[in-house]
UniProtKB/TrEMBL annotation:
The keyword Transport applies. GO terms for molecular function: transmembrane transporter activity. It comes from Rhodoplanes serenus. One of its GO terms (cellular component) is plasma membrane. Keywords: Amino-acid transport, Cell membrane, Membrane, Transmembrane, Transmembrane helix, Transport. It is a multi-pass membrane protein. GO terms for biological process: amino acid transport. Belongs to the binding-protein-dependent transport system permease family. LivHM subfamily. This is High-affinity branched-chain amino acid transport system permease protein LivH.
Length: 290
């Protein structure tokens, strides 16, 4: 029997982990949904956001400013890479973009190692207070991370459903050809999506940095979980990504309390089970040809 206080701590830990998964994989989902690009370089922006949060927080002592700098620089890097690299790959097969993006991830990790070295770096927690919930001390910062993820989801939903640009992106996700026929510059939508995806991945890294030790291969370490989240939720589905991120976060957290190896095995088992029942994931649709 799991101690109730330990269980509550595990749930909060799972929620904060799921929040990071969501912010990181939202970019992957957006890029695949609109452009049919498997953008593994999003995991590079995640690491860049974390390292810039570390650098700025060490320089001036403000973690939140570090997170903001990480978001802005990650968005800029995403813009440059989309313009220089991915614009030349949209007409290629999905596997081509996947290989290119993985190469960018590995190359970026090499640059990170050259700039910051191999030693893991600690980032101070910006909010050290704790709340007493049902007799259990819960870190306030983890709750803040969850709230930020929920606000981002609400903001992305409003952007995609209530704004002209967002509706154009949704139309592009459904059918690029018809969207171009309406006179919409799809190329600009692609660029905007990459900027947004890079910013979200940088935000994930910046928010996660105070909860872990920042190290060069942090993007590679979380790669399997990122793909599990996107596949379980359904490729291209924002709602599915949101739900599956928190599902995977809870499975990893609670599973580690029940039996440590479950933290690694259970998400894969759930992914296989869902794919057997619904091959497109929880909210995915049949893949369209671009």
């Amino acid at each position: 029997m799991i101690d109730p206080h330990l269980l509550l701590s595990g749930v909060i830990f799972g929620l904060s982990m799921g929040s990071v998964f969501f912010l990181m994989t939202l970019g992957l989902s957006l890029c695949f949904g609109l452009m049919r690009v498997i953008s593994m370089d999003q995991l590079l922006y995640y690491a860049v956001g974390a390292y810039l949060t570390y650098t700025v927080s060490m320089a001036i002592g403000n973690v939140w400013l570090g997170i903001l700098v990480g978001v802005l620089v990650s968005a800029l890097v995403g813009f440059v890479i989309e313009r220089l690299v991915f614009q030349r790959t949209y007409s290629r097969e999905i596997t081509f973009s996947m290989i290119i993006s993985f190469g960018l991830l590995i190359g970026g990790i090499g640059i990170i190692k050259a700039v910051w070295g191999l030693v893991p770096r600690p980032v101070p927690v910006p909010i050290e207070a704790q709340w007493n919930i049902l007799g259990t001390e819960v870190p306030v910062y983890r709750i803040v991370v969850v709230l930020i993820a929920v606000l981002v989801y609400a903001g992305i939903w409003a952007f995609l459903n209530k704004t002209i640009i967002g509706k154009a992106i949704r139309a592009g996700i459904e059918d690029v050809g018809h969207t171009e026929g309406l006179g919409i510059n799809v190329s600009r939508l692609f660029t905007l999506t990459f900027i947004l995806a890079g910013a979200l991945s940088g935000l994930a890294g910046g928010l996660h940095a105070p909860l872990i030790m920042v190290f060069p291969d942090m993007g590679l370490e979380i790669l399997a979980f990122a793909f599990m989240v996107v596949i379980i939720g359904g490729l291209g589905s924002i709602k599915g990504t949101f739900i599956s991120a928190f599902l995977v976060g809870q499975v990893v957290s609670i599973g580690s309390l029940v039996y440590a190896p479950l933290a690694q095995m259970a998400p894969f088992a759930i992914m296989l089970l869902i794919l057997l029942i619904k091959p497109t994931g929880l909210y995915g649709s049949a893949m369209l040809k671009r």
